[in-house]
Amino acid sequence: AQTVTQSQPEMSVQEAETVTLSCTYDTSENNYYLFWYKQPPSRQMILVIRQEAYKQQNATENRFSVNFQKAAKSFSLKISDSQLGDTAMYFCAFMEYGNKLVFGAGTILRVKS
Amino acid sequence: DTAVSQTPKYLVTQMGNDKSIKCEQNLGHDTMYWYKQDSKKFLKIMFSYNNKELIINETVPNRFSPKSPDKAHLNLHINSLELGDSAVYFCASSQELAGGETQYFGPGTRLLVL
């Protein structure tokens, strides 16, 4: 079974600084998809970024970018110019065929002013 | 203009009761899901439906029964509630069953069983 590991239970960053959240996964599949979701205190699950494993290019969405290392099975999220509104729990997720999302345990990110 | 909505948002009930959570999506998606987030915030898929057909059933106790009257709705009925059922339940939907489709989540229903 696929597993997703987020090794940082909590992180903090100063406003306007850059922070990287790590994620590793285990799979024997060659084609799959990876996601980062954000869950602020409101509880809503919000998609941050999506990566297709067959694409070499790292996905980017405004201040959010990923470092996807397929051979190392690593999928880290970089948040640039951190804002107070980025304070949330961040979940890394792996998707196999059939759209089953497997989530990591999450990383709580606190942005300090 | 909520894309994926759930009712109720909060549910407090006694052990042994039966309760339902409703989910509706107005995105025109074919596939819907139920996830459970436990007290440690761990998220796990329970069920998925595609065009009213059950696709994924993740060894959930048979006290949990999903029902999809049409592809825009996926309800979750729970019989004989237990303390361990206390959690946040999320509904989600995606365009289709093909791999890689982004799932859009509802706001969650916090269930507390006393």
Describe this protein with a few key phrases:
A: mainly beta, B: mainly beta
Radius of gyration of chain A: 13 Å
Rough shape of chain A? globular
Strand content of chain B: over 45%
By DSSP (H or I, 4+ residues per run), the number of helices of chain A equals 0
Radius of gyration of chain B: 13 Å
Descriptive report:
The complex is a heterodimer of chains A (113) and B (114). Chain A has 113 residues and is mainly beta. Chain A contains no helices and twelve strands. The mean pLDDT of chain A is 94. Chain B has no helices and eleven strands. In chain B, a hairpin with a 2-residue loop joins strand 7 and strand 8. Chain B is globular and about 40 Å long. Classes of the chains: A mainly beta (113), B mainly beta (114). At the A-B interface, strand 5, strand 6, strand 10 and strand 11 of A face strand 4, strand 5, strand 9 and strand 10 of B.
Question: What is the structure about, briefly put?
Answer:
With 113 residues, chain A is mostly beta strands. Chain A has strands at residues 3-5, 10-14, 19-21, 24-26, 33-39, 46-52, 60-61, 64-69, 74-79, 88-95, 101-103, 107-112.
Describe the secondary-structure layout.
The complex is a heterodimer of chains A (113) and B (114).
Chain A (H helix, E strand, L loop, with lengths): L2 E3 L4 E5 L4 E3 L2 E3 L6 E7 L6 E7 L7 E2 L2 E6 L4 E6 L8 E8 L5 E3 L3 E6 L1
Parallel strand pairs in A: 2-12
Antiparallel strand pairs in A: 1-4, 3-9, 5-6, 5-10, 7-8, 8-9, 10-11, 10-12
Chain B lengths: L3 E4 L2 E4 L5 E7 L5 E7 L5 E8 L2 E5 L6 E7 L2 E6 L8 E8 L9 E2 L3 E5 L1
Parallel strand pairs in B: 2-11
Antiparallel strand pairs in B: 1-3, 3-8, 4-5, 4-9, 5-6, 7-8, 9-10, 9-11
